[in-house]
Amino acid sequence: MGASTGRAAICGYYIKSLRTGEQSAARQVAPHIAHDAVARYGGNTYQGRDAVLARMSGKWPMTNTLRRAGWSEPAAQDGRMVVTAEYPPGIVMPRISKVVFSFGERDEITEVVHEMVPFPDRLATDEVPLVIRGLVNDALGNNTPMCLAYVSEDGEPVLSLRGSLQFHGPRQISAWIRNPEGGLASAIPQNPKVALLYRDNDRLITMTIKGLAHIEADEEIRRQVYDMMPEVEQTHDPARAGACLIVDIKSIQCLLSGEPISVEL
Q: Using the 8-state DSSP alphabet, how is residue 122 labeled?
């Protein structure tokens, strides 16, 4: 991240480190935390950059819970940046949390407040609920990697397990293809129609997603996708030589522990 990194990107790296404990994300955000920054979690206060970084990264009792949540894109509200999360069924705690970031004049984080807020009504069917974002983003960490279906260049159906799948913005899903000349990267320009399948037997969750995919060449988007995918996936392609796949979501059908969710975009 360069000096021009925006506040939304800084918040994104912070949230990735918070929910996964991954040190690579912590290193990205560290230069953007003020020396005298403060982080507040419940009744605890962490004072100073080192303390804030230590609380943000690594494994904590709540890390697995935060990992399973669906996190919104950072949004500006009243001069601060706000990220909201929603948790899947089975979490014995309020299912929504809110992280509020305050910044100084140098675009450094000066304060982070983690709040619990009431559970809202389900999002309208023309928006992707945060809980679905959480299922996709945590699929690999939950040992329920998603299966991507596409049509090969010779017209044959292909199924491919993908560990790098993550939401990219509110209506797209991204994946990192290690072999930029392999079957998937070569097939998408010929037929962009893809489908994704998620299944968690333990939590009785089934989800299918349909969309149109393309190979993204923009270097800034490629960097964002690479940086936001799970760290273990990054280690398979440290040179960032792979191809960046972006899926524009068209529909989602999900049975969430008995609760049906249908999204049309």
A: P
Q: Which residues partner with 208 through β-bridges? A: 197, 253
CATH label of the domain that carries residue 43 = 3.10.450.50
Answer whether residue 11 is part of any domain.
yes
Low-confidence ranges of the chain (pLDDT < 50): 1-4, 123-124
What φ, ψ does residue 50 adopt, rounded to 5°?
A: -60, -40
Q: Minimal CA–CA distance to 197: which of 254, 244, 239?
A: 254
Domain boundary among 87, 116, 145: 116
243, 185 contact by CB (below 8 A): yes
Residues above pLDDT 90, as percent of the chain? 75
Element (H or E) spanning 224, and its range? helix 219-228
- Name the domain boundary from 88, 116, 144: 116
Answering whether pTM is above 0.90, one says no
C-alpha torsion angle, residues 64, 66, 67, 72 (rounded to 10): 170
